[in-house]
Every structure is written in C-alpha cells, then in structure tokens.
Design goal:
This is N-acetyltransferase. With 229 residues, the protein is of the alpha+beta class. The protein contains 7 helices and 10 strands.
Length: 229
C-alpha cells in the first residue's frame, strides 16, 4: 500500500512523538493519519476544499507566502558599521534564536507548548551552524543577528531585540542576500513568510522581493504530547 506520510525526524526530536508531513490531500492520505499516533503537517493550495480536512481532524495554523528576488532586482542598502562574518560565538547566535522567532506555525499551534516550539528553532539553528549555513550579521563589531540559508533558500533572518528599530534590517538583508547570491549558482533567492509577520514581509518587498506562491498550513495531533519542560 502506498504511504502518504513522510516522516519528519527534525520535528520528532523536539515533540517526542512521531511526526509526519502528508504528501497528498486525498482521502486515502488523510485516512492514513488516523492509523498512526503523531503530529501531522499538511500544506495545501488556499483555494482547495477543506471539508475532508475538518472531517479528519486537521486544523488551520498558518499561511506561508513565498517572496522571490531575482539577482538583478536586489536593492542594496548601505550603512556604516554593518558587516557579515563567518566567525561568531555560537552561543550568541543561539541566544538570539531563542527569542527572535515567536510567531512560527508551531507557536501558533495550540497543541504545541511554546517551549517545544522554541526548542525546534534552537535545534534547527544548531544544525545549520554545524553545516556552515549561518552568516553572522555584525554591527560595529558586535553580533546583532544572523542570516541562515540552504541552497538558494533564505531559511531564517534573526536579529537581537536590542538592535531592532535602528535601521539595520535593510542593510543586513541586502548584504546577506548579496553574499548569498555569490555562494550559489542561482539567479533567484526564495524565502517563506507568514502574512502575520508584516514587518518581515515589508522588509523583503522593500529589498526587491516579489510575492509568488502561497500555501495554507494545517496540523493534526493524533494522540498526545509528553508533558514537562
């Protein structure tokens, strides 16, 4: 029998139950989610009929928009004191991670405790550090944030709370994206942003990104999560 459940071990390690992403919206795929304990993710076209999703216990958590930037469209913003570095204190990057991402889809999932959603980001960034996929964003010599990437995808852009609102976001993003283009043989960079994160969405648009695809994200919990910190 064909399986429509793709294991996501990077999530399982944080939630301590089996985790999956469904590869189809068919009723057969949805039925398979009833036959296994775990947490499930399903990404669908916003115009898709959701009647079966409700029947099988899936609930909406977020919408993701895909901003895309062609190399020729990148708008560069200069600011004195802004630089990138591959040399950084890992603990500083992880400290910024722990407080910079509070609006992700797992934070919005009422079945996921916030500490588990926080741990998911921290463990993800630990992996990216090990894979050398992090650039530190520095201002006047101090680590103010970081830029994480994989292939032509911008995965995360995090900034220390004490540096926000100081006109650094555009210089950081444009400098990071320019460096990113130099690292990959691609003409486009892509990322993924929730429309609820308007500051980030506006930042990418003002730096030359255009909005392309949109998906709605649904979750399902079949069973229960272990409790505790």
């Amino acid at each position: 029998m064909q399986t429509y459940l793709r294991p996501t071990p990077w999530d399982q390690r944080n939630f301590h139950i089996p985790t999956y992403e469904l590869t189809s919206i068919s009723e057969e795929a949805l039925h398979q989610s009833n036959e296994h304990e775990g947490h499930f993710t399903l990404k669908i076209d916003p115009l898709a009929n959701t009647e079966l999703l409700n029947k099988y216990g899936f609930y909406y958590v977020d919408t993701l928009i895909e901003p895309v930037c062609h190399k020729s469209a990148l708008k560069f913003t200069e600011k004195d004191g802004v630089e990138l570095s591959y040399n950084y204190n890992k603990s500083e990057i992880l400290r910024i991670t722990a407080e910079a991402f509070q609006g992700g889809r797992f934070h919005r999932d009422y079945n996921i405790p916030n500490f588990m959603a926080d741990n998911r980001y921290v463990n993800w960034v630990k992996d990216l550090i090990e894979e050398n996929q992090i650039m530190a964003l520095k201002y006047e010599g101090s680590t103010a944030g970081f830029y994480a990437y994989e292939g032509n995808k911008i995965l995360l852009l995090g900034m220390d709370a004490s540096y926000r609102g100081k006109g650094l976001a555009k210089p950081f993003l444009s400098k990071g994206a320019s460096e990113h283009f130099s690292l990959v043989d691609e003409d486009e960079l892509v990322t993924s942003i929730s429309p609820s994160n308007l500051p980030s969405l506006n930042l990418f648009i003002s730096t030359g990104f255009k909005l392309r695809n949109t998906v709605d994200v649904y979750h399902k919990l079949n069973g229960s999560l272990p409790v505790g910190g």
